[in-house]
């Protein structure tokens, strides 16, 4: 249940954006409360048996994030072309499982430079994306868009926690 | 007019993605990446609203990463692609600048079809 709560965060934020005129700034507080609840419950409820896999996933995800962000913003390729190029690069380097983690990182890297003026927060989001991939393993299995949802969760958690303006 | 073109392109990309998934040995990531690259390079040069269409086709390419268990038949993929196109078109101002936004739209579209399907199966078992 707690896994579903975490992965649903982007949908909660999207719903709050739709009804924002009704709540003024209340939406951010709702999201922060959700994140706080999930992070209190997550370590107790989520069975993460394979901790050694978390670090490589976090690093691979961060690699995809940085590659996409730099291609999109510094070579002006734009997020779509950058993520596609990075995804294709990943298919030549990694095996199936790690390709997905790398592609997840690419989704995090599609974030706007206005949201992430510094690379520090972006790297944090990339690392968190890899961690969430392992924590949320088997959740929404086989659903297209799952990687993007996990990436959006990582980005939103970082932005809501450290600022960046929602 | 632009919604009609967006829907049509979304359905076309859904068909392409489904075909790539069923008929080729491309990995999920490679299939989605090729579809995204093609959309992002071609559509903005062909249409005035090409960037929006590229967003729609990219989100649809994520839809086609669904497993065969979730979206078994072509019509299911096409229905989800159409729903996804609508969500991206009308949700352009939601989660702007957040990486993973298009994937979120894609996942939501897939659930609109797969959740009722799963419940139907459960009811049949009972």
Structural class per helix/strand content of chain B? mainly alpha
- Count all strands of chain B and give the number: 0
Class of secondary structure makeup of chain A: mainly alpha
Q: Give the overall shape of chain B.
A: globular
Largest sheet of chain A: none
Strand content of chain B: under 5%
- Count of alpha and pi helical runs of chain A: 9
- Helix count, DSSP H or I runs of 4 or more residues of chain B: 5
For this structure, the quaternary state is: heterodimer
* Shape, per Cα inertia axes of chain A: globular
Uncertain residue ranges of chain A: none
The two chains with the largest interface, and their residue counts, are: A-B, 50 and 47 residues
The radius of gyration of chain B is 14 Å
The sequence of SSEs of chain A as H and E is: HHHHHHHHH
What is the β-strand count of chain A?
0
| Strand content bin of chain A | under 5%
Give a written overview of the molecule.
The complex is a heterodimer of chains A (166) and B (126). Chain A has 166 residues and is an all-alpha fold. Helices cover 74% and strands 0% of the residues of chain A. Chain A is built from 9 helices and no strands. The relative contact order of chain A is 0.16. With 126 residues, chain B is mainly alpha-helical. Chain B has one domain. Chain B is built from 5 helices and no strands. Chain B has helices at residues 2-23, 28-46, 50-63, 74-90, 101-125. Chain B is globular, with a radius of gyration of 14 Å. At the A-B interface, helix 2, helix 6, helix 7 and helix 9 of A face helix 2, helix 3 and helix 5 of B.
């Amino acid at each position: 249940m707690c896994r579903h709560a975490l992965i649903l965060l982007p949908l909660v934020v999207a719903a709050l954006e739709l009804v924002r005129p009704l709540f003024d700034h209340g939406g951010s507080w709702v999201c922060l409360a959700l994140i706080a609840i999930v992070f209190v419950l997550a370590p107790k409820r989520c069975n993460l048996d394979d901790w050694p896999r978390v670090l490589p996933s976090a690093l691979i995800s961060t690699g995809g994030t940085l590659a996409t962000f730099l291609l999109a913003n510094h070579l002006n390729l734009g997020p779509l072309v950058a993520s596609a190029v990075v995804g294709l690069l990943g298919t030549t380097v990694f095996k199936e499982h790690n390709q997905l983690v790398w592609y997840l990182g690419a989704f995090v890297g599609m974030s706007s430079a206005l949201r992430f003026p510094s690379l520090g927060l972006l790297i944090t989001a990339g690392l968190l994306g890899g961690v969430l991939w392992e924590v949320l393993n088997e959740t929404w299995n086989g659903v297209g868009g799952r990687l993007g949802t996990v990436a959006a969760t990582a980005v939103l958690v970082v932005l809501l926690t450290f600022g960046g303006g929602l | 007019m632009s919604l009609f073109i967006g829907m049509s392109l979304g359905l076309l990309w859904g068909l392409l993605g489904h075909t790539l998934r069923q008929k080729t040995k491309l990995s999920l990531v490679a299939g989605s990446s090729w579809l995204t690259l093609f959309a992002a390079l071609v559509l903005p040069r062909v249409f005035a609203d090409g960037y929006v269409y590229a967003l729609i086709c990219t989100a649809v390419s994520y839809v086609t990463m669904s497993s065969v268990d979730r979206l078994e038949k072509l019509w299911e993929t096409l229905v989800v692609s159409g729903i996804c196109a609508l969500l991206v078109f009308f949700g352009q101002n939601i989660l702007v600048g957040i990486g993973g936004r298009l994937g979120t739209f894609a996942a939501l579209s897939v659930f609109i079809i797969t959740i009722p399907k799963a419940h139907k199966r459960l009811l049949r078992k009972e």
